[in-house]
Amino acid sequence: MRVILISYSAQGFALLHSVCERAGHTPVAYLHARSLRPGEPTRHGAGDVVGEIVDALPNGMDLLIPGRKSALPHIVAGYQADLIVCYGFPWKLPPAVLRATNLGAINVHTSMLPKYRGPIPVNWAIRNGDKEIGVSIHWMESEFDSGGVLAQEAGITLGDDVVPQPLWEEVDRCIERLLPRALSLAVAGSPGSPQEEGSATYAGWMEPEFSQIDWSTAREVIHNQVRAIRFGSSGKSGPVATVAGRRLRVLRTSLQPGDGIKVMCGNGPVWITESVPVTDSQS
Q1: Are 9 and 171 a contacting pair, CB within 8 Å?
Q2: Largest CA distance in the chain
Q3: What does 94-121 look like in DSSP terms, one character per residue?
Q4: Does pLDDT of 283 surpass 80?
Q5: pLDDT tens digits, residue range 25-47?
Q6: 172 Cβ contact list (under 8 Å, min separation 6)
Q7: Quick one: average pLDDT of 202-216?
Q8: Domains (ranges, CATH) in the chain?
């Protein structure tokens, strides 16, 4: 089977490529989004990511970096592919793209669908205090993350301090287990298990207010707010709060007594164990 791979990084492409090849399928092109939405400016850092992808490209492999999606159906159709395999693509693929291969497209999503459809499911799981996440591989349809589920596995633990690299390594191991099964089912024409629409939730981009701490909120909510932003920034950032008249960027908190600043929240104390001052230029 000829497959087009869509992913967010060199590591993502390498994972999909190796699993597809071991399953007896041939990747014929890579596709990567340089912007969060079609037609928008290239996102910060995209050049470095593209450089890493190019450095790791297999010999003869095409890398497609579209700026808009109107030409995608014709480009995809030109590869005469059987299937698109996607893992990490922020755009909604038009139906014409999904019809441009013989079988359609499948997507790897880091949640137990139908929970947390959308672009940042892990961040929302941390924000909501979930103890674990999972991986789902599903058919792509016109709406985000709504197609029949071909393979699914839970049990990836979210600790109190979620460090991105070990978490994504565990996610990758889960994908290595699930993707061969999903590919076999796709070849066999399985529609997958329908999702329960009544249980669907959406994990969209965080609202601007999420970057500020409101100390009247419950302490668990504030702790998870710090955890989610810390995870999303790989430990480099956190929400801003005013503490004793000083503006701080809160990088780490504890619900248990610890070294740091004790602050009363809506239902009890939280301890700020790591923070940095907010400068005037960051306000």
Answers
A1: no
A2: 64
A3: PHHHHTSSSSEEEEEESSSTTTTBSS-H
A4: no
A5: 999 999 999 998 899 999 999 99
A6: 11, 15
A7: 96
A8: 1-102 (3.40.50.170), 107-159+179-205 (3.40.50.170), 208-282 (3.10.25.10)
Closest C-alpha to 276, from 245, 244, 247: 247
Q: What does the pLDDT look like over 231-269, one tens digit per residue?
A: 999 888 999 999 999 999 999 999 999 999 999 999 999
159: tokens are 């600790």
Across the chain, the runs of DSSP E, i.e. the strands, are 2-7, 26-31, 62-64, 83-87, 104-109, 132-139, 149-157, 240-243, 246-254, 261-265, 268-277
Q: What is the DSSP string of 165-196?
A: HHHHHHHHHHHHHHHHHHHHHHHTT---BPP-
For residue 16, give the nearest of 194, 182, 164, 161 by alpha carbon.
182
Helix (H) or strand (E) holding 56: helix 46-56
Give the bridge partners for 246, in sequence order: 243
Q: β-strands 62-64, 26-31: how paired? A: parallel
